[in-house]
Design goal:
single chain; five-stranded mixed beta sheet; 487 residues; 12 strands; five-stranded antiparallel beta sheet
């Protein structure tokens, strides 16, 4: 049985950020520990070498003093041996054990020597002697690190007051590393404790910091996943967002605005196209039989001749009734046809106050209050379509008012710089919040009768005049429609 291989999922940005912060601390800690150890070792080495130089300088001065005092320059080795006690005092005074050799490497005084020198009968090896004498500074330093001896061996050429060489000083320097090593270990131990504390602190901070940093991205991801063309998408509002996140949020909100506008245009276009096609088909189907029916009835009325006055009256009444029904069907077809393609605008300069007033007169005046802030307001519009707008809005207001209430309809015309505003308010039952997005849709109606084309046609007429229509409604208190026409 084969076990399917599954690739590991990609690490999230939050996980990556968390891991990177921990790795940075870990690497920084290693660098600090390594640098500290190297620096500490370098300082310790420099300290001991400086101490060696100072100690060696003191011994050289002491030896030069004894050699000058006893006039031992260019004297045979046996003469040097006479002053052995004086040279031995240097060991006690300076608490050291040094050795002194002639320029050919033979011992003058031997108090301490490396094993290699002892094994060579206390004579300096020719190669070692060559290195010492060829040294530019007259000093040669070696480090002996055997199981028995661990020390710095300094070989220095001794010169008289005239700069002439007369001997070689061997000076062993033993480092007391116990204190420095204890001090270093103590320091590193304290550093380890601080580092462990910092590690836990950074893990804690990194967890919440990564969560805080990625929270905004998670919100954006969730919102983007929920975004759809057929949904009511919400914008993102974040407080104290970084510049990059804020720029991303602004781009998303701009996209939502554009998506909302495009979705509205698409829905409107689809609905209008569907209704236009339906309206054209209905108009075609209704208008086709109208003309032959009308011609037939008119012909029948013209040719029919009967002495029976009752029959004639019946036929006449029937014909009138049939013609009336045909006219009604024609009106319905015309309404559909007008919605499918509104007549071309016939814009003329006219007094909008006068046109509005005449449109109101077909209704009962006692419950309609009309006012205008100017006696005359001239505007270029289609007079017939404007009357249609006023009629539809008043009719909708009347139908929304309960029969138990006394109708109150207010119409106010305001001429302001840059625009003309028409406000129509009523005391009807209002519009439910769940229906506010559908109120201007074709075929939508809350009434038991009617085709639901009124407000859709009103909106089309207003938009054809480059205007806008909006409304504010409170249930059981009334609705206010506002039309704005640009000047």
């Amino acid at each position: 049985m084969k076990i399917p291989f599954k690739l590991p999922e990609k690490f999230s940005f939050r996980t990556r950020l968390f891991v990177v912060m921990i790795l940075m601390l870990f690497v920084a800690g290693l660098l600090i520990l390594g640098t500290t150890s190297i620096q500490y070792e370098s300082q310790r080495e420099n300290y001991h070498l400086g101490r060696l130089d100072r100690k060696e300088a003191q011994i050289q001065r002491h030896i030069n003093h004894l050699v000058t005092k006893n006039d031992l320059y260019e004297k045979h080795d046996s003469v040097w041996q006479k002053f052995n006690s004086e040279f031995e005092q240097i060991n006690r005074i300076h608490n050291i054990r040094y050795s002194l050799f002639s320029l050919d490497g033979t011992p003058l005084f031997v108090y301490h020597s490396p094993l290699e020198v002892i094994a060579n009968n206390y004579l300096l090896d020719p190669l070692l002697l060559e290195r010492i004498l060829k040294s530019e500074t007259g000093n040669y330093l070696e480090r002996y690190n055997s199981d028995i001896d661990k020390f710095h061996a300094s070989y220095s050429v001794l010169n008289d007051e005239f700069g002439k060489s007369y001997g070689i000083l061997f000076f062993p320097y033993f480092e007391d590393t116990s204190f420095s090593e204890n001090e270093l270990n103590s320091f590193l131990q304290n550093l380890y404790q601080i580092y462990i504390f910092l590690l836990f602190a950074v893990i804690f901070i990194a967890y919440f910091l990564s969560k805080y940093v990625t929270r905004s991205l998670e919100i954006i991801r969730v919102r983007m996943a929920e975004t759809g063309l057929d949904k009511k998408n919400e914008k993102i509002h974040l407080k104290n967002a970084t510049r990059e996140i804020d720029s991303l949020v602004n781009s998303y909100n701009t996209m939502i605005d554009e998506l909302s506008v495009n979705a509205a245009k698409l829905v409107k276009t689809q609905r209008e196209e569907a209704w236009q096609e339906m309206a054209k088909q209905v108009a075609h189907e209704i208008k086709n039989p109208l003309t032959p029916m009308r011609l037939t009835i008119q012909s029948f009325q013209h040719k029919y001749d009967s002495n029976d006055s009752d029959n004639k009256e019946k036929v006449s009444n029937f014909s009138d009734l049939l013609i009336q029904q045909i006219d009604t069907m024609s009106d319905v077809a015309e309404a559909f046809s007008n919605f499918a393609s509104l007549p071309k605008l016939n814009l003329k300069e006219c007094d909008i106050v006068d046109v509005t007033s005449k449109a109101i007169k077909i209704f009962q005046q006692e419950y309609i209050i009309f006012s205008s802030n100017h006696a005359q307001i001239f505007y270029k519009l289609d007079k017939a379509q404007w009357i249609r707008v006023i009629t539809n809005l008043i009719q909708n207001s009347l139908q929304s008012i309960s029969k138990k209430k006394t109708p109150q309809i207010g119409i106010q015309l305001i001429n302001e710089p840059g625009e003309i505003i028409l406000i129509i308010s009523d005391n009807g039952k209002g519009i439910s919040p769940s229906l506010t997005d559908k109120i201007f849709e074709p075929k939508f109606t809350t009434k038991n009768s009617g085709m639901g084309l009124g407000l859709g046609i009103v909106k089309n007429i207003i938009e054809s005049h480059n205007g806008t229509i909006s409304f504010v409604s409170k249930q059981e208190k009334g609705t206010t429609f506002t039309i704005r026409l640009p000047q």
